[in-house]
Every structure is written in structure tokens, then in C-alpha cells.
Amino acid sequence: MTLAKTIYYFLIPAVQYFIGAAIIDTWQYFLHRLMHVNKWLYVHFHSRHHRLYVPYAYGALYNHPVEGFLLDTLGAAVAFKVTRMTLRQGILFFSMSTIKTVDDHCGYAFPWDPLQIVTSNNAEYHDIHHQHWGIKTNFAQPFFTFWDTLLDTKYRGSKTNKPGQKKAKVEEKAQ
């Protein structure tokens, strides 16, 4: 295989996928965080997704249609357009984004999971966000966690429920 073919078929798509993942992570981090900071957005759109205290794979995209369009569809479309992916690349990118989102909500964080070898976000990481004691942390999805690290929203406490802490009180603070 010539150098030109290697660049065209492997290097350029790899760069496009990486940039696309960074774009979709940026898009989703800030909109997801906004839906937690803004009480109206949380109550009317995002709270549906947080009815799942124990996330499971089929619940990954259990959200309000407006939230689904803004976070998932529009975010992926922006990443697709900005990186100028081909239609085939876009199909693969959209599919991998959806699969990764489902994987993050599946409840399992196997060390050999191929989706978690490259990315720093996994089911254990995102599960913390779905707990009433971690709802203001771990906003990053679906690929990397760099925004949580940079903006200090990464959960650093115990990974178990705090004894004696009332669910309603924590949820009240979250809104």
C-alpha cells in the first residue's frame, strides 16, 4: 500500500474520528451540564433521564425528545459536518457514539472492554452521575472525561452512597 493510500484511508479518517469525538464530547458536556444548572431545563427535559438511578443499557437514550435532539442528534451532526466525514464515516461515527452511550449505561465496566480501552469514560464513571449523591459531577459523555477534569466536575469522593444522606435533600440541591 502506498503512502498516499495509507494517509487517505487510515490517517485522515483517524484524525476526523478523534476530532469528531472531541467535538461531540464538548457539545454534550456543556449542554448536559447546562441541563443540570438550569432548573427549568432539568425539570422539563433532563429529569426524565435521571429517573434511572441504576442505569441500564436500554435506558441510555431514555430521555425527552428535545434533549435527545439537542444533545445526541445535533451534537453528532455538528461533529460530522465540521470534520467533513464521508457518509460511510458518519454512519460508523454515529453508530459508535450510540454504542458507547449504551455501553456507558450498561452497568458493567470490564477491564477488557474494547470500548473502554481507548476512552476514559465507562459505566462505572457515568453511574456515579446517576446517583443522587453524584448528580452534580461526571457530566462527560460519551468518549472522554477531559472536560470534567479541566472544569473540576469529576467526582472525587467515595463511590458508595453516603449513610444518612436523604435522597430528597440531595435532589433539591441538584435542581
From TrEMBL:
Molecular function via GO: iron ion binding; oxidoreductase activity
Gene Ontology CC annotations of this record: membrane
BP term (GO), one: lipid biosynthetic process
One family name in Pfam for this protein: FA_hydroxylase
Keywords for this protein: Membrane, Transmembrane, Transmembrane helix
Residues annotated as transmembrane: 6-31
UniProt domain Fatty acid hydroxylase: residue ranges: 19-153
Subcellular localization(s) per the UniProt record: Membrane
Protein name as catalogued: Sphingolipid C4-hydroxylase SUR2
Lineage of source species: Eukaryota, Fungi, Dikarya, Ascomycota, Pezizomycotina
